[in-house]
């Protein structure tokens, strides 16, 4: 009987410690969210894969909002052979001409420095398993093009970014 009580007491102690530890852990992981980016941003989840595809063909966002794009490369190939970025072009920019210029901008992750003025927002270039986030103010209502500027990708990796 005494042994049983001892084991019970130990067991109880163990649960106390386990729960205490868990609570602390939770508090630690909660913190970044509490102090992170403002929660009023409109969040868009975009992925790119090893088959040279975005998960979306059309993205709709509300006008006048802050937009947050969470971009993830869900494939496994390295960025040297299957790199992806996410770029939103201004309306008057020719996507094929931009892609042609981007091909020669390997040093700047296929974002031609002279084209910064033609871009509303862009992520960095990702390889398989990597992810990144960007935040920007929604441009005026209208339809814009989004794309990946890795050489040859824009033909398959593009779509409409619609602000309403
Ligand atoms: Zn790509």
Q: In words, what does this structure look like?
A:
With 164 residues, this protein is an alpha/beta fold. The chain has a single domain, classed as Cupredoxins -  blue copper proteins (Immunoglobulin-like, Sandwich). Helices cover 29% and strands 27% of the residues. The chain has three helices and eight strands, in the order αβββαβαββββ. A five-stranded mixed beta sheet has the order 2-8-7-4-5, with no helix packed on it. The longest helix has 34 residues. The chain is globular and about 35 Å long. 25% of the residues are buried. Zinc ion binds next to loops.
Brief account:
The chain has three helices and eight strands, in the order αβββαβαββββ. With 164 residues, it is an alpha/beta fold. The longest helix is centred in the first third of the chain and has 34 residues, at 2-35.
CATH A-level architecture: Sandwich
Strand runs, count: 8
Hetero groups in this structure are:
zinc ion
Q: Shape, please?
A: globular
CATH level 3 topology: Immunoglobulin-like
Strand composition percent? 25-35%
Radius of gyration: 23 Å
Q: Number of helical runs?
A: 3
Distance between the termini: 73 Å
* Count of domain modules: 1
Please trace the helix and strand order, writing H or E for each element: HEEEHEHEEEE
What number is the mean pLDDT? 86
* Fourth-tier CATH superfamily name: Cupredoxins -  blue copper proteins
Widest β-sheet, arrangement of strands: 2-8-7-4-5
Q: What fraction, in percent, of the residue positions are helical?
A: 25-40%
CATH top level is Mainly Beta
């Amino acid at each position: 009987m005494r042994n049983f009580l001892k084991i019970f007491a130990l067991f109880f102690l163990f649960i106390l410690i386990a729960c205490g530890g868990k609570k602390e852990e939770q508090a630690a992981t909660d913190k970044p969210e509490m102090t992170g980016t403002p929660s009023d941003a409109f969040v868009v989840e975009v992925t790119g894969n090893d088959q040279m595809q975005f998960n979306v063909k059309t993205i709709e966002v509300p006008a006048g909002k802050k937009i947050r794009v969470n971009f993830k490369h869900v494939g496994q190939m390295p960025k040297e052979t299957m790199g992806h970025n996410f770029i939103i072009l201004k309306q008057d920019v020719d996507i094929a001409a931009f892609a042609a210029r981007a091909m020669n901008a390997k040093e700047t992750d296929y974002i031609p420095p002279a084209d910064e003025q033609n871009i509303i927002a862009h992520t960095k270039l990702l390889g398989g398993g990597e992810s990144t986030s960007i935040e920007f103010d929604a441009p005026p209502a209208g339809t814009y093009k989004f794309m990946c500027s890795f050489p040859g990708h824009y033909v398959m990796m593009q779509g409409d970014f619609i602000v309403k």
